[in-house]
Amino acid sequence: MSHGVDKAVEALLRGQESAYRLKTVLEHASSVPTEPLFDSVLHSFSFALSLFSSSNTQPPHRESSQRKPTPVVARKSPKKNSHGEEGLEQYSHDSPNPHHNDGFSWRKYGQKTIKTSSHQRCYYRCAYAKDRNCNALKRVQQIEDSPSLFRTTYVGKHICEVNAFFQLNDDICNGSKMIRFDKIDQAMPDSVIPQPVPVEQDAILIESTDQNMNLECGSNEFLVDDDQLWGYQIPPCSPGNFMFLDDLSEFDYNPFHL
DNA sequence: GAGATTTGACCGCC
DNA sequence: GGCGGTCAAATCTC
Protein backbone atom coordinates (compact mmCIF):
# COMPACT_ATOMS: atom_id res chain seq x y z
CA MET A 1 0.00 0.00 0.00
CA SER A 2 1.42 3.39 -0.92
CA HIS A 3 2.24 6.11 1.51
CA GLY A 4 -0.67 8.20 0.29
CA VAL A 5 -3.15 5.41 0.81
CA ASP A 6 -1.77 4.80 4.28
CA LYS A 7 -2.43 8.41 5.06
CA ALA A 8 -5.92 8.21 3.67
CA VAL A 9 -6.71 5.22 5.82
CA GLU A 10 -5.21 6.98 8.80
CA ALA A 11 -7.36 10.03 8.20
CA LEU A 12 -10.47 7.93 7.79
CA LEU A 13 -9.75 6.04 10.97
CA ARG A 14 -9.34 9.32 12.80
CA GLY A 15 -12.60 10.57 11.41
CA GLN A 16 -14.34 7.37 12.39
CA GLU A 17 -13.01 7.64 15.91
CA SER A 18 -14.13 11.25 16.11
CA ALA A 19 -17.61 10.30 15.02
CA TYR A 20 -17.79 7.66 17.71
CA ARG A 21 -16.75 10.15 20.36
CA LEU A 22 -19.24 12.73 19.13
CA LYS A 23 -21.95 10.16 19.18
CA THR A 24 -21.22 9.37 22.80
CA VAL A 25 -21.22 13.03 23.75
CA LEU A 26 -24.36 14.00 21.91
CA GLU A 27 -26.36 11.06 23.12
CA HIS A 28 -26.10 12.54 26.58
CA ALA A 29 -26.46 16.17 25.71
CA SER A 30 -29.09 16.52 23.04
CA SER A 31 -32.68 15.48 22.48
CA VAL A 32 -32.14 15.50 18.75
CA PRO A 33 -32.29 11.95 17.38
CA THR A 34 -28.73 11.58 16.20
CA GLU A 35 -28.66 7.82 15.95
CA PRO A 36 -29.56 7.51 12.25
CA LEU A 37 -27.21 10.32 11.34
CA PHE A 38 -24.24 8.83 13.07
CA ASP A 39 -24.98 5.33 11.96
CA SER A 40 -24.87 6.57 8.43
CA VAL A 41 -21.61 8.42 9.05
CA LEU A 42 -20.00 5.40 10.62
CA HIS A 43 -21.21 3.12 7.89
CA SER A 44 -19.81 5.46 5.29
CA PHE A 45 -16.43 5.51 6.95
CA SER A 46 -16.43 1.77 7.18
CA PHE A 47 -17.32 1.42 3.55
CA ALA A 48 -14.62 3.81 2.46
CA LEU A 49 -12.07 1.95 4.51
CA SER A 50 -13.11 -1.30 2.97
CA LEU A 51 -12.22 0.07 -0.43
CA PHE A 52 -8.64 0.52 0.63
CA SER A 53 -8.24 -2.60 2.65
CA SER A 54 -8.06 -5.66 0.47
CA SER A 55 -6.81 -7.83 3.26
CA ASN A 56 -10.01 -7.74 5.25
CA THR A 57 -12.90 -9.94 4.24
CA GLN A 58 -15.39 -7.44 5.61
CA PRO A 59 -15.31 -3.72 6.01
CA PRO A 60 -14.32 -2.83 9.53
CA HIS A 61 -17.27 -1.56 11.47
CA ARG A 62 -18.69 -1.37 14.90
CA GLU A 63 -22.40 -1.76 14.71
CA SER A 64 -25.27 -0.07 16.43
CA SER A 65 -28.71 -1.46 17.02
CA GLN A 66 -29.95 -0.07 13.72
CA ARG A 67 -28.69 -0.58 10.22
CA LYS A 68 -26.68 -3.59 11.17
CA PRO A 69 -24.77 -5.02 8.25
CA THR A 70 -24.91 -8.73 8.71
CA PRO A 71 -22.29 -11.03 7.29
CA VAL A 72 -23.68 -13.32 4.70
CA VAL A 73 -23.42 -16.92 5.66
CA ALA A 74 -21.22 -18.58 3.14
CA ARG A 75 -22.72 -21.34 1.08
CA LYS A 76 -21.49 -24.77 1.94
CA SER A 77 -20.60 -25.12 -1.69
CA PRO A 78 -20.46 -21.65 -3.12
CA LYS A 79 -22.13 -21.56 -6.46
CA LYS A 80 -20.06 -19.91 -9.11
CA ASN A 81 -21.86 -17.65 -11.42
CA SER A 82 -20.99 -17.26 -15.05
CA HIS A 83 -18.27 -14.77 -14.13
CA GLY A 84 -16.73 -16.90 -11.44
CA GLU A 85 -17.58 -14.72 -8.47
CA GLU A 86 -16.65 -17.45 -6.04
CA GLY A 87 -14.65 -16.08 -3.16
CA LEU A 88 -15.59 -12.48 -3.77
CA GLU A 89 -16.10 -10.35 -0.73
CA GLN A 90 -19.70 -9.82 0.22
CA TYR A 91 -21.66 -8.35 3.07
CA SER A 92 -25.20 -7.28 3.62
CA HIS A 93 -26.77 -4.12 4.91
CA ASP A 94 -30.32 -3.65 6.17
CA SER A 95 -32.06 -0.38 5.52
CA PRO A 96 -35.63 0.89 5.61
CA ASN A 97 -34.87 2.60 2.35
CA PRO A 98 -34.56 0.23 -0.63
CA HIS A 99 -32.77 2.97 -2.52
CA HIS A 100 -30.30 3.64 0.27
CA ASN A 101 -27.66 5.87 -1.24
CA ASP A 102 -24.30 4.17 -0.85
CA GLY A 103 -22.50 6.70 -2.99
CA PHE A 104 -22.20 4.51 -6.03
CA SER A 105 -24.09 4.42 -9.24
CA TRP A 106 -25.85 1.16 -9.97
CA ARG A 107 -27.61 -0.26 -12.97
CA LYS A 108 -30.35 -2.76 -12.55
CA TYR A 109 -29.92 -5.84 -14.66
CA GLY A 110 -32.46 -8.24 -13.29
CA GLN A 111 -35.33 -8.93 -10.96
CA LYS A 112 -36.59 -12.29 -9.82
CA THR A 113 -39.12 -13.85 -7.55
CA ILE A 114 -37.22 -15.92 -5.02
CA LYS A 115 -38.55 -19.22 -3.85
CA THR A 116 -37.78 -18.58 -0.19
CA SER A 117 -39.39 -15.15 -0.14
CA SER A 118 -42.67 -13.65 -1.22
CA HIS A 119 -40.81 -10.54 -2.29
CA GLN A 120 -38.84 -10.06 -5.46
CA ARG A 121 -35.10 -9.67 -5.46
CA CYS A 122 -33.50 -6.98 -7.57
CA TYR A 123 -30.05 -7.31 -9.08
CA TYR A 124 -27.74 -4.38 -9.69
CA ARG A 125 -24.23 -4.01 -11.00
CA CYS A 126 -21.91 -1.05 -11.01
CA ALA A 127 -22.96 1.39 -13.71
CA TYR A 128 -19.34 1.46 -14.83
CA ALA A 129 -18.85 -2.29 -14.87
CA LYS A 130 -17.88 -2.24 -18.51
CA ASP A 131 -16.06 1.07 -18.67
CA ARG A 132 -13.84 0.38 -15.67
CA ASN A 133 -14.03 -3.35 -15.42
CA CYS A 134 -15.71 -3.03 -12.03
CA ASN A 135 -17.26 -6.26 -10.81
CA ALA A 136 -19.24 -4.85 -7.89
CA LEU A 137 -22.75 -6.21 -7.62
CA LYS A 138 -25.57 -5.76 -5.21
CA ARG A 139 -28.86 -7.46 -4.54
CA VAL A 140 -31.77 -5.78 -2.86
CA GLN A 141 -34.61 -7.72 -1.32
CA GLN A 142 -37.36 -6.96 1.13
CA ILE A 143 -36.79 -8.93 4.29
CA GLU A 144 -39.43 -11.58 4.76
CA ASP A 145 -39.57 -11.24 8.53
CA SER A 146 -39.31 -7.46 8.52
CA PRO A 147 -41.15 -6.12 5.46
CA SER A 148 -40.24 -2.59 6.40
CA LEU A 149 -36.58 -3.40 5.92
CA PHE A 150 -34.66 -4.07 2.75
CA ARG A 151 -31.54 -6.15 2.75
CA THR A 152 -28.85 -5.03 0.37
CA THR A 153 -26.14 -7.56 -0.28
CA TYR A 154 -22.95 -6.23 -1.82
CA VAL A 155 -20.78 -8.64 -3.73
CA GLY A 156 -17.28 -7.79 -4.81
CA LYS A 157 -15.54 -4.47 -4.51
CA HIS A 158 -15.82 -1.26 -6.43
CA ILE A 159 -12.60 -0.87 -8.33
CA CYS A 160 -14.07 1.72 -10.66
CA GLU A 161 -13.56 4.70 -8.41
CA VAL A 162 -10.22 3.40 -7.19
CA ASN A 163 -9.03 2.96 -10.76
CA ALA A 164 -10.24 6.37 -11.81
CA PHE A 165 -8.87 7.92 -8.65
CA PHE A 166 -5.37 6.54 -8.81
CA GLN A 167 -4.96 6.62 -12.55
CA LEU A 168 -5.73 10.30 -12.55
CA ASN A 169 -3.93 11.12 -9.34
CA ASP A 170 -0.46 9.84 -10.11
CA ASP A 171 0.85 11.93 -7.28
CA ILE A 172 -0.74 9.63 -4.77
CA CYS A 173 0.76 6.54 -6.32
CA ASN A 174 4.12 8.26 -6.34
CA GLY A 175 4.03 9.06 -2.68
CA SER A 176 2.55 12.54 -2.65
CA LYS A 177 -0.31 13.27 -0.29
CA MET A 178 -2.23 15.63 -2.50
CA ILE A 179 -5.67 14.84 -3.82
CA ARG A 180 -7.00 16.91 -6.66
CA PHE A 181 -10.75 16.93 -6.37
CA ASP A 182 -11.14 18.71 -9.65
CA LYS A 183 -9.49 15.79 -11.37
CA ILE A 184 -11.82 13.41 -9.66
CA ASP A 185 -14.74 15.42 -10.87
CA GLN A 186 -13.47 15.20 -14.38
CA ALA A 187 -12.88 11.51 -14.21
CA MET A 188 -16.04 10.44 -12.47
CA PRO A 189 -19.54 11.24 -13.62
CA ASP A 190 -21.77 13.06 -11.19
CA SER A 191 -23.80 9.98 -10.56
CA VAL A 192 -20.81 8.25 -9.01
CA ILE A 193 -19.54 11.01 -6.80
CA PRO A 194 -21.66 11.84 -3.78
CA GLN A 195 -22.83 15.28 -4.71
CA PRO A 196 -21.85 18.13 -2.48
CA VAL A 197 -24.55 20.55 -1.60
CA PRO A 198 -24.29 23.93 -3.31
CA VAL A 199 -21.92 26.15 -1.41
CA GLU A 200 -20.00 29.30 -2.08
CA GLN A 201 -16.60 28.49 -3.43
CA ASP A 202 -14.84 30.56 -0.80
CA ALA A 203 -16.98 29.19 1.98
CA ILE A 204 -14.67 26.27 2.50
CA LEU A 205 -12.55 27.04 5.48
CA ILE A 206 -10.00 24.86 7.09
CA GLU A 207 -9.40 26.48 10.40
CA SER A 208 -6.41 24.97 12.09
CA THR A 209 -6.74 27.53 14.85
CA ASP A 210 -9.84 26.01 16.37
CA GLN A 211 -8.83 22.58 15.23
CA ASN A 212 -11.91 22.12 13.16
CA MET A 213 -12.87 22.06 9.56
CA ASN A 214 -15.72 24.43 9.02
CA LEU A 215 -17.66 23.33 6.00
CA GLU A 216 -20.30 25.98 6.40
CA CYS A 217 -22.91 23.69 5.01
CA GLY A 218 -25.71 24.72 7.29
CA SER A 219 -24.44 22.51 10.04
CA ASN A 220 -27.29 23.58 12.26
CA GLU A 221 -29.57 21.52 10.10
CA PHE A 222 -29.40 17.91 11.05
CA LEU A 223 -30.06 15.73 8.08
CA VAL A 224 -30.84 12.17 8.84
CA ASP A 225 -31.97 11.19 5.38
CA ASP A 226 -29.29 9.10 3.73
CA ASP A 227 -29.58 10.76 0.36
CA GLN A 228 -29.19 14.18 1.85
CA LEU A 229 -26.49 13.08 4.20
CA TRP A 230 -24.32 11.92 1.33
CA GLY A 231 -24.15 15.48 0.21
CA TYR A 232 -21.85 16.14 3.13
CA GLN A 233 -19.53 13.22 2.82
CA ILE A 234 -16.99 14.79 0.55
CA PRO A 235 -15.94 18.30 1.42
CA PRO A 236 -17.45 20.51 -1.25
CA CYS A 237 -14.22 21.35 -2.96
CA SER A 238 -14.52 23.16 -6.21
CA PRO A 239 -12.13 22.79 -9.13
CA GLY A 240 -8.71 23.94 -8.13
CA ASN A 241 -9.14 23.10 -4.49
CA PHE A 242 -6.84 20.64 -2.88
CA MET A 243 -6.88 18.60 0.23
CA PHE A 244 -3.62 17.54 1.76
CA LEU A 245 -3.95 14.36 3.70
CA ASP A 246 -1.07 15.37 5.90
CA ASP A 247 -3.04 18.43 6.86
CA LEU A 248 -5.65 16.22 8.39
CA SER A 249 -3.16 14.97 10.90
CA GLU A 250 -2.48 18.47 12.10
CA PHE A 251 -5.90 18.95 13.56
CA ASP A 252 -8.77 16.83 14.66
CA TYR A 253 -10.67 16.55 11.44
CA ASN A 254 -14.31 16.77 12.28
CA PRO A 255 -16.52 16.69 9.20
CA PHE A 256 -19.52 17.52 11.34
CA HIS A 257 -18.38 20.58 13.15
CA LEU A 258 -21.32 21.29 15.48
C1' DG B 1 -31.52 8.90 -29.86
C1' DA B 2 -29.13 7.49 -25.77
C1' DG B 3 -29.30 5.49 -21.58
C1' DA B 4 -31.93 3.00 -18.04
C1' DT B 5 -35.30 -0.42 -16.80
C1' DT B 6 -38.17 -4.48 -17.50
C1' DT B 7 -38.82 -9.19 -18.22
C1' DG B 8 -38.69 -13.68 -20.38
C1' DA B 9 -35.12 -16.86 -21.69
C1' DC B 10 -31.07 -19.04 -20.74
C1' DC B 11 -27.14 -20.94 -17.96
C1' DG B 12 -24.71 -23.32 -14.29
C1' DC B 13 -24.84 -25.53 -9.91
C1' DC B 14 -26.93 -28.66 -6.72
C1' DG C 1 -35.44 -30.69 -12.59
C1' DG C 2 -35.41 -26.78 -9.41
C1' DC C 3 -33.39 -22.73 -8.23
C1' DG C 4 -30.68 -18.44 -8.20
C1' DG C 5 -28.22 -15.52 -11.15
C1' DT C 6 -27.34 -13.36 -15.62
C1' DC C 7 -28.22 -12.09 -20.42
C1' DA C 8 -30.25 -9.47 -23.83
C1' DA C 9 -34.13 -7.83 -26.56
C1' DA C 10 -38.02 -4.98 -25.83
C1' DT C 11 -39.72 -1.09 -23.72
C1' DC C 12 -39.64 3.16 -21.28
C1' DT C 13 -37.99 7.78 -20.01
C1' DC C 14 -35.75 11.99 -20.66
Automatic annotation (TrEMBL):
<dbReference type="InterPro" id="IPR003657">
    <property type="entry name" value="WRKY_dom"/>
</dbReference>
<feature type="region of interest" description="Disordered">
    <location>
        <begin position="54"/>
        <end position="106"/>
    </location>
</feature>
<keyword id="KW-0804">Transcription</keyword>
<keyword id="KW-0805">Transcription regulation</keyword>
<dbReference type="Pfam" id="PF03106">
    <property type="entry name" value="WRKY"/>
</dbReference>
<protein>
    <submittedName>
        <fullName>Probable WRKY transcription factor 64</fullName>
    </submittedName>
</protein>
<dbReference type="GO" id="GO:0005634">
    <property type="term" value="C:nucleus"/>
</dbReference>
<keyword id="KW-0238">DNA-binding</keyword>
<keyword id="KW-0539">Nucleus</keyword>
<dbReference type="GO" id="GO:0043565">
    <property type="term" value="F:sequence-specific DNA binding"/>
</dbReference>
<dbReference type="GO" id="GO:0003700">
    <property type="term" value="F:DNA-binding transcription factor activity"/>
</dbReference>
<dbReference type="InterPro" id="IPR044810">
    <property type="entry name" value="WRKY_plant"/>
</dbReference>
<feature type="domain" description="WRKY">
    <location>
        <begin position="95"/>
        <end position="163"/>
    </location>
</feature>
<dbReference type="InterPro" id="IPR036576">
    <property type="entry name" value="WRKY_dom_sf"/>
</dbReference>
